[in-house]
């Protein structure tokens, strides 16, 4: 057995067999075959097996995700039965006496190229389907054992270098019990997804991929950040006990589900959840969220080949509002760019994407995209308590420009006879230091602030949060950050407005006492952090925390602040 | 028999309706079915063939059937074109 450690990215413990998620090597060499009939039989066999797999995936997708998601596999099946593909491959094997994988690859490549050269962007992307189908058959011809994450159908722990957004989107939480990766940190995409899916995860282990083989028994401890490879029976028993204790703790927390969030001395704050899709609302309700503090709309734009229409967006926003049943829902308008790319927008590569053309900067330029989203949001506002916020606001001018577009679309919709709510709160994300410093001026014009700590810390400390070598500069407790947070909260309160926080910091047990003391009104976090936070706040005195926060602002380092919190909260 | 349509779907003929067309054409075993557009004629029993036409909104497409059930096949294909919102009859 061996034990390594990484960053505890998502709480919980999982014990299961390892599933290695790696993209295999498809190097193909041409070779002469003496027995053409055997080669043709090999091709037939590979085709049949591939069709069997696709049929099974199609049925499972149909049952679990619905007809829309299953359609793509129906097209893949048709491609495998397509005489225009299969006949030329068979002819090639017969006439040139070559290996089946080579013949298939040659013919398939012609189709890939045909699609890539088409005028329509939609048809160009069908090249990816062609490649996907070809790889499936090649797996059988080349003896490659590759299962895509969508096809996992037994309980596993996924082991990978890193998980891309498209990998995580395909993970089925019924079978994927946990995952661990070589790279990444607490705020990397894969970690955030793990918390949202409520799957235990340890990221940034540096070498788990080289230490684990497929089928090894693995324990992922998302509480401590430990990963055990081929543990002894005693260790498995120990961790199963730990898992049970954790489950008990969770059950204890669940009792607080329908309670308000009130400190020991009676101060009420609001605990909301961060979500990415309408499906996440179930988790918000299950975990007693008092609202949605951040609905990241980017996912509506990702994993597709063109912009989502007004109708598609309206349906998603409306579903969230209706399912939240009158509780507030803060929707962040499109925050694309930086580490989140949309291939179909064909934006130029930038040297410094985090400081570049992203979020509101892009939306104010590409008004066609922005107006569609605003219209969908305004129409959905009739179905609940909608609040809208703009991301990456650096100047008051940007806020005003975005607000004016919103008002224009509101007037347009009204003229079209569409229903729009009159009570939509309009706010901004505070994640750029210039905006935090000038919060008093913003507070006169916005209805609320939501502090995005991941970016605020990255921009204040000038440290890329994806770069492990400077990750020590990601310091939520640094007094410089706390002072900025205080400026924002005080500025809002002076104008009778409220301040929320939707970064990872809002759910952090060391930060919570400080934020309560600084007067934060709304804490928005991963749904699974809500009940522990409610339990923690119920034991804290807001008055004491206010005193402590005042002291923290006068300290010099993050370490001193953390030590102060530790000693005050005990 | 043949019938001509004008493509109205903003995506042109994409994978889902192409799948429906091919599935429908394949049901009529004794009948040949073709799609002809932009001077190119392909069998309707091949999804790659149909997609290779690269049809976009505004293009015209002729569906051709030949064989024992040509009338039934053409009518079924026309239903798919209309039901999927792919095209309208162009005369």
Secondary-structure-based class of chain B equals: alpha+beta
> What gross morphology of chain A would you assign?
globular
In whole angstroms, how far apart are the ends of chain B? 14 Å
Report how far apart the termini of chain A are.
Answer: 37 Å
Mean pLDDT of chain A: 91
Total strands of chain B: the figure is 5
Overall helicity of chain B = 25-40%
> Helix and strand string of chain B, N-terminal first?
EHEEHEHE
Helix content of chain A: 40-55%
Main pleated-sheet profile of chain A? 8 strands, mixed
How much of the residues of chain A is beta strand, in percent? 5-15%
Decide which structural class fits the backbone of chain A: alpha/beta
Strand percent estimate of chain B: 25-35%
Oligomer: heterodimer
How much is the average pLDDT of chain B?
88
Count of helical regions of chain B: 3
Question: How many β-strand runs of chain A?
Answer: 16
Question: Shape of chain B, please?
Answer: globular
Task: Report the C-alpha radius of gyration of chain A, rounded.
Answer: 26 Å
EC number (chain A): 2.7.3.9
Catalytic activity (chain A): L-histidyl-[protein] + phosphoenolpyruvate = N(pros)-phospho-L-histidyl-[protein] + pyruvate
Protein name (chain A): Phosphoenolpyruvate-protein phosphotransferase
InterPro entries (chain A): PEP-util_enz_mobile_dom (IPR008279), PEP-utilizing_PTS_enzyme (IPR050499), PEP_util_AS (IPR018274), PEP_util_C (IPR000121), PEP_util_CS (IPR023151), Phosphohistidine_dom_sf (IPR036637), PTS_EI (IPR024692), PTS_EI-like (IPR006318)
